[in-house]
Amino acid sequence: MAALALVAACSGSGDGDDDGGAASGTTTTTAASPSQADEPWAQTLRQLVEEGDGRDNESEGSQRAQDLLVDALDPIAEPLPGGDGFRHPFDQGTNLLGIIEGTDNPDEVVVLGAHYDHLGHDCETDDPDDVVCDGASDNASGVATVLEIGRRLAADPPSRSVVLALWDAEEDDRLGSLAAVQSGVIDTDAVVTYLNWDMQGTDLLPSVADSRWRTQTARSTLARLCRSRCTSYGW
Ligand SMILES: [Zn+2]
Predict the structure, then answer these.
(1) Distance (Å) from CA 104 to ligand 1 centroid
(2) Rounded to the nearest whole angstrom, what is the distance from the C-alpha of residue 18 to the centroid of ligand 1?
(3) Which of 31, 63, 106, 178 is the most exposed place for a label (fewest CB within 10 A)?
(4) What is the pLDDT of residue 10?
(5) What's the 145 CA to ligand 1 centre distance in angstroms?
(6) How far is the CA of 202 from the centre of ligand 1 (A)?
(7) DSSP 32
(8) Looking at the predicted structure, is the pLDDT value of residue 212 above 70?
(9) How close is the Cα of 170 to the center of ligand 1, in Å?
(10) How many domains does one find in the chain?
(11) Which domain holds residue 84?
């Protein structure tokens, strides 16, 4: 049975709960090692933060983020049909959607999602002169994760097709993912799994912080990728 779960780990209200990213100094982070800093995922994370305007939907900062994310999607996925290339505009913003076609069961779809929008200037930081919500954790981190998984899946495509979904307007009560479902651009009958990344490195639910999640590890391409990457970083 096909199932699609559109979930988001952060709320749309956003008052004062922004991670703030590098500029606000409100989040304790561990710096990437020199080798990790050169990784594509680290570059994506850095580029989104350095975009500098907080990526609010329909802002100039959002446009800059879209440009760099389209450049990141281009070598690893094909545009999902129904949009303007990778861009899928809707009334309040623009989703970015790419697909890696499956080898054996291309009509079955796994969706890997993360929202790239953030709060723009609508958050509190420690520095009153710093009015930009960088959103390093929320959710440049999730976008970097989805793109990194996409890069590795593109190099060795799995049986099912994989849609890489970078949502806009999540901070406005998930309007981007809602628009994708309502428009039919993503055929929900074909979706067998949806996985969402939001705010990596943040314990939103401390009760499950030490939990481990495993799904069909004997046959899962995703599980093999995760295991190899965790091992390489000593996690
Ligand atoms: Zn979020």
Answers:
(1) 33
(2) 9
(3) 31
(4) 57
(5) 13
(6) 11
(7) P
(8) no
(9) 7
(10) 1
(11) 33-203+211-232
Residue 164 pLDDT: 98
Q: What is the overall mean pLDDT for the chain?
A: 82
Cα–Cα distance list, 51 to 1, 35, 48, 55, 127 (Å): 41, 23, 5, 8, 19
Write out pLDDT tens, residues 109-147: 999 999 999 998 887 777 878 888 888 889 999 999 999
- 5 in any annotated domain: no
Rounded to two decimals, what is the model's pTM? Answer: 0.79
- On whether residue 143 sits in a domain, the answer given is yes
Q: Is residue 196 part of a domain?
A: yes
For residue 130, report the distance from its CA to the centre of ligand 1, in Å: 20
CATH code, domain with 117: 3.40.630.10
CA of 77 to the centre of ligand 1 (A): 24
* 129 falls within a domain: yes
Q: Supply the angle between the helices 142-155 and 40-50 in degrees, to the nearest 10.
A: 150
